[in-house]
Amino acid sequence: MSRSLCFPAVVHGLRTLSLVAVDLVGRVAPAARGRAAGVAESLFLRKQLALFQERKVRPRRADDSTSWMMAALSQWFAWRNALVNVQADTLRRWHRQGFRLFWRWKSKTAGRRRLPKDPRALIREMAVDNPSWGQVRIANELQLKLGILVPSRTVAKSLRRGGLARTPDPKQRRITFVPNHAQGIVACDFFVVMTATFRILRVFVLMEVGSRRILHHNVTAHPTAEWTLQQFQETLPGDHPYRFVLHDRDSIFPRELDKAVTRLGGRVFRTPVRAPQANAYGERLGGSLRRECLDFLIPLNEGHLRMIGKEWGRHYDRGRPHSSLGPGIPEPSQETVPASGHRHKLPAGYRLAKTPVLGGLRHEYRPVEDAA
Fold first, then answer.
1. CA 322, CA 320: separation in Å to the nearest integer?
2. Does domain 178-325 have CATH number 3.30.70.20?
3. Is the CB of residue 125 less than 8 Å from the CB of residue 142?
4. Residue 172: band (very low, low, confident or very high) from pLDDT cuts 50, 70, 90
5. Domains of the chain: which residue ranges?
6. CB-based contact 41:82 (threshold 8 Å)
7. 324 DSSP assignment
8. Which of 51-65, 126-140, 152-166, 169-183: highest mean pLDDT?
């Protein structure tokens, strides 16, 4: 009997507690909301006051962050009585702009996922390396040889964003022509050298562009067209494999000289006016000659300069690594060295030998078999 009386009492107590909780929430919620409204109203007024303090005299036009904050704070209190220097229509316009931005973001379609960074870089690299390729050819190359499935329209979009949008160009530009025919091009140039007695000499150098091998060099104090033609005749015999000769527009290369070189079997290409980079191979050769040799050795006379150039030319062809060749050497040695099996050690039975060049200005290193 006591148990049956106890259960209704517990139920009645729980109901009483729930009613008390509901009444407490009903009384506390308006108070909390009123406090939040007070805080929002205070921030709203402070924001308008800040607009006055920025210019001291009159507020400047509110920026996006200010308009967004004021529009957001106005949701928490009756904002009409708190307006000081902002009109009601302005605040409504800020509300409408916020809703437009929100629904624009909300209704934005996802679309196709953007192409990752690596394929985009590969597409642009292929477009630069192959000027005659269009978007379809690049897409086919990626699909058939690399297994990368990229639509041709996506390829075109990547090219446009990289500033490479174009139609296939059947013409071959100079930057493509020179590497394609490098084995048959001879670049030549004159370099000015001053001796110890302040005498000005000219060094004439001819170089094969493909292998970077120096074909011929000579020194003179008074270069003429006849002397220059003689150098070409010594370099380009009757059965030479070269088709093109590249030089600048120096007065030492007159039209008559070009016609004589053409009769030797080489078509002459003159660089554009004031464009030394068009003969970058010859200019770089002269720079290497100065940086590696003539900046440290002052020639005494013409014969001394010719001897220095001959020794440095031998080092340039047979002992100096060239980065543009992979790296490589124009005339590599035929000696073969067995693999050592360790990347930081010489092969077993070999030792390091060095040979001084230009009196010790440079050195060449090579492994030699150690005597037993």
1. 6
2. no
3. no
4. low
5. 2-106, 117-171, 178-325, 333-372
6. yes
7. G
8. 126-140
